[in-house]
Amino acid sequence: MKTSKRKPARPGRTEHWHPAAWQAQSLLLAYPDEQFEQRLALAGRVAATLPEPVARPLLRFTAHTEETTPADLATAYVATFDHRKRCCPYLTYYAHGDTRKRGIGLLRLKQTYAAAGWRLGDDELPDHLAVVLEFAATDPATGARLLTEHRAGLELLRLALNDDGSPWAHILDSVSATLPALAGDDREAVMRLAAQGPPEEQVGLDPYASPVFLPDPVVGGPR
C-alpha cells in the first residue's frame, strides 16, 4: 500500500489531512472489542492517504494485529494500559498525578468539549488519548492546542510504550508525527517528567464532579 510523500504539518498550523489521521489513531487506541476489525480496516484505508511519517507507524500496527488473535490483543491492551502507570493513557495524569489539580484539568477539558457541542458518556474521562484525538478530528484547531498542551505527557507515554515493545507505541509514534518537532521547553518538560514522574498527592478528584451543562450530541469514548 502506497502512502503520500507529503510532509507533516509545520508548527503553528493544521493540515487538511490532520482530522483523518487523528480519527484513525483514535480508533486504533480504543479497546479492541467486537467492532475492532471494522475500525482496523477503516484505519488502514485512511493511512493510504496520509504523509509517510504518519502512515508508516499505523501500518506497522495493523500488520501486528494480523498476526495476533483478538483475545490476545485485548489481553495485551488491558495489561498495558490498565495495569501499568507508566503507560497511562489519561493525559492529565502526567502533569498532575491523582491530585486536586488533575480534577480541575479534567473539568476544563470537559468544558472545552461542551463549548464545541460535545457530550461524553458518563463512564468516560475526557483526558483519555483516544477521546482527545476523536475530538481533535472534529475540531482540528482546538484539538491541536489540546494535544500541544499535553505534549510532555503524550511523549512520555510514547517513550514508555516503545521501551516496553508495545504495538501501541506505533500509534503514539504516528500521533507525534502530526505535531511540531519538540524543542526547548517541550523537550525539557518530557525529561523532567521522565525523571520525577507525576505528583503523588492523593486527594481525590472532587472538582471534576462540579456541575457543567453539556449539550448533545453524545460522543462515544475509547471503549
Radius of gyration: 17 Å
Distance between the termini: 29 Å
| Percent in strands | under 5%
Helix-strand pattern: HHHHHHEHHHHHE
| Overall body shape | globular
Helical content stands at 55-70%
Count of helical regions: 11
**How would you sum up the major sheet?**
2 strands, parallel
Average predicted confidence as pLDDT = 81
Task: Report the strand count.
Answer: 2
**What are the segments in which pLDDT stays under 50 over at least 5 consecutive residues?**
1-11, 201-221
Q: How does the helix and strand content classify structurally?
A: mainly alpha
Sequence of strands across the biggest β-sheet: 1-2
Which descriptors would you attach to this protein?
single chain, about 220 residues, two-stranded parallel sheet, about 55% helix, globular
What does this structure look like?
- This protein has 223 residues and is mainly α.
- It is 57% helix and 2% strand.
- It has helices spanning 18-29, 36-47, 52-66, 70-82, 92-96, 100-115, 129-138, 140-149, 151-163, 169-177, 185-196, and strands at 119-120, 218-219.
- The chain has a two-stranded parallel sheet.
- It is globular, with a radius of gyration of 17 Å.
- Mean pLDDT is 81; it is low at 1-11 and 201-221.
Task: Reconstruct the topology from this structure.
Layout: H1 18-29, H2 36-47, H3 52-66, H4 70-82, H5 92-96, H6 100-115, E1 119-120, H7 129-138, H8 140-149, H9 151-163, H10 169-177, H11 185-196, E2 218-219
Parallel strand pairs: 1-2
